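Sanity check record (used in CI):
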Amino acid sequence: MPTPPTRSSFVTVMAAISLALGGFGALGNLLQLLLAWTLPSASLAAGLLPPGMPVPAPLLWLDAHLAGLSLAGALLSAVLAWIAWGLLRRREWARQGFIAGLVLAALANFAGLPLVDALFDGLLQGMAGPDADLRELQAMTHALRQILFWSCLASALLVAALHGWIAWKLYRPEIRAEFRRGPL
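Expected output for Membrane protein:
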């Protein structure tokens, strides 16, 4: 009878961390869902801006869809926890699902970059006017827009590199040998 492969600490630690992140993420999103159900809709977005400033369309959209987004976040976090549990049990479906999740998360970071511009477009439209204070605020907002965009891009690149490295490790023969096909 062949001896089972040694279990790597890489998979065990990664799965345990992912299980905790999935569990806490589900809990946090469910609490956010309760908040979305109890607060009046427009109060969240309007509370982020100075009085009298129009709320940018992306913030209005987020505000209007907060309950659905929170529920989706809770479900995705629960799926992460389930996949992490499968990783701890060394199930092949979990390894493949985790790799797919890594790729999708990295792509989502890049897909979100245009939202930075959309949010700042709305903010800048609300700051239109000849007032010198507004012009100074517009200049600072333009600078903040650039800083935030490049920070988000750098973060997306770092996350993609990290996720790529983890996926590569999970494809290594010595790691793949730990996993077995089996029931969910």
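The chain has eight helices and no strands. If this sentence no longer matches the regenerated tokens, the check is flagged for review.
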